[in-house]
Amino acid sequence: MLEPERTIRSTCPYCGVGCQVDLLIKDAHIFRVEAPFDVAPNYGRLCAKGRFGMDYVSHPSRLIQPLIRKDLGQKPRRPVGLEGFREATWDEALDLAAEKIADTVRQYGGDAMGTFCSAKATNEDNYLFQKFVRAVLGTNNVDHCARLCHAASVAGLQIAIGSSAMSNSIAEMKDLEVFIVTGSNTSETHPVISTFLRQAVVQGGAKLIVVDPRGIEMTEFATLWLRQKPGTDVAVFQAMAQVIVEEGLFDHDFIAARTEGFEEFTGSIVEWTPERAESVSGVPADLIREAARSYASANSAAIYWGMGISQSVHGTDNTLSLANLALLTGHIGRPGTGLNPLRGQNNVQGCSDSGGLPNVYPGYQRIDDPEICKKFERAWHIATEDRRRETGNGHRSSVSRHSPVFRLSNEPGLTTMEMVDAAESGAIRAYYVMGENPMMSEPDLRHARHVMEKLDFVLVQDIFLNETGEYADIILPAVSFAEKDGTFTNSDRRVQKIRAALPAPGEARADWEIISDLAQRVEAKLDREHSAGFEFEHPAEIWDEMARLTPPFQGINYKRIEREGGVHWPCPTPDHPGTPCLFAESFPRGKGQFSAIQYRPSEELPDENYPFILSTGRVLYHWHGGTMTRRSQLDHIYPEATVEINPKDAHQLGVQEHAQVRVRSRRGKIEVKALVTERSPQGTIFIPFHFAEAAANELTNDVRDPQAKIPDYKVCAVAVELLR
Ligand code: SF4
After folding, report:
1. 472-504 residue pLDDT tens
2. Looking at the domain 6-58, which fold is it?
3. What's the CA-to-centroid distance between 190 and ligand 1, angstroms?
4. DSSP letter string, 606-673
5. pTM higher than 0.85, yes or no?
């Protein structure tokens, strides 16, 4: 057996569980991954991705040198492979990138830049990225893939309680009494969390209520499975609330002390009887009643959900309807309860926490709060009271060709999807994309590609050339999680370390180093009198700067994380223990807000020409756009795109297991291999979104939740036909 030269403790780079891993290193390779048994959150458990999916780090296609497009400036921009780029030095690539960015800002203003930070990068990378965007470019146009996965959870929870993170910890899961899992294929998307949930059922006798259209593995352990038609979640949860109110199962004291809007809410659900919900959702009324009684009568009961709830045109309403249930029953603020959106990417929580959103600074401090704005301006050496002067009415950005005066913008920036719209209209002229792959993750990819072709300039920073990099003018090679220090924040708000275990490949550099270098060059080209401050020796210094400016992080530093393994924010002082369970006394918005909502059907339902509903999601062996897993041995296990088809539908279509089929929507078509399975209900097909050669987002619909602006990846109409 191989003996490691060294073993480095780190955090898994795949999903939001944030499993702690020991990377066993020999000959500059990770040759084995183990999990420590005595460390939260996974206590020795790992899934296939954590155990076998790290070999992408050593894949020969890693980017190792800056690249510049050979046909730079040619429009429309076409996607090119590596042969379409030439190698460049860092100086040449960064100078050119800085010149292009500065030109854009000088000519059109900072709001002409669209920027994407990364839920795969560290907190420190993302803090510095948004600092560059805000303090140098002068725009709040910064967003990331949280917009495309949990924006509706964020929007709904902000309305209901004023905080959008998971309220309770992973450590509580094995001791649950009753819990609802909805819109989460937990055993494939958050596999280690699913083992704790399963343990609660198998060992602890917990009651599991699954609310999901697909026959996912969690249903095998469920006491109740409510199999609603896709897109009818609100009807089911409204009816559960109606039963709880009608049968007097609500918590009077909790409602009186800690909520508002109860009367209006109860008025809004009177007509949502289980029978009415059955007619909409297909879930038998008796099952809805049983689920409501089980959830409401428990001493403690929790709700967990995933993208099946949030990636919907009514994702905010879905979240609000779950929040209504928790507020009705008082199942929040205690161990074993709570509202728990299971976050997708390894650091999607941390990227949002670090200010990678268009309307907030780190720690969700509002950009339109004058005091907060002043605090950041002082810290970033931007504007002092005596240097400030007004920039003129109507300018969203502080930097424009009409107004050279610089200050932080207090206008919310654009979301990812709005940036696509703005790029199409010409309001956005250039993109800076760090560690994201919008050319796989956007809905309606044909439209997204068209937009990419029009931009004046595209700067991409990544570890591989992916579908977005193919549109880049300049590509800056970054290091992976295994080649740098930093922190990730997992789904239950635990800030954990990653540590450099391997040397950087070629000339690749850490994201924070690249941003720092680029930012200083752009500042110089924009003739900034003072730098906002981009000189750091180590990411610990970046964390310390962010923590100084962000009250919930002020008790957290690298030494403490080293000592304790991880710390749950909020942690406002060095002697604070951290907060695994939130809202014991109050909610950030004060009282919990009930919301009167109404069920609305999905936007694009099946018809004669497109008779099936398409739902998209993940499989166990792959991750998001496949940039990492498709370059790992996991791709040998699950090498091609598939479509789940119910046996009755397959019979009608003449489709046998493993037949090739074409799936068409109003927007595009793909060819995939059929899996004939009861997992998908009749009339609904399911396609994973990991495969570029058959990208599910060629088919999806760019229709969005009006509040969260999240696209609907779970319901659109498609046709299926047998190929051979
Ligand atoms: Fe990594 Fe998530 Fe699997 Fe844990 S559950 S090993 S964090 S992919």
Report:
1. 999 999 999 999 999 999 999 999 999 999 999
2. N-terminal domain of TfIIb (2.20.25)
3. 7
4. --SSS-EEEEEE--TT--TTSTTGGGSTHHHHS-S-EEEE-HHHHHHHTPPTT-EEEEE-SS-EEEEE
5. yes
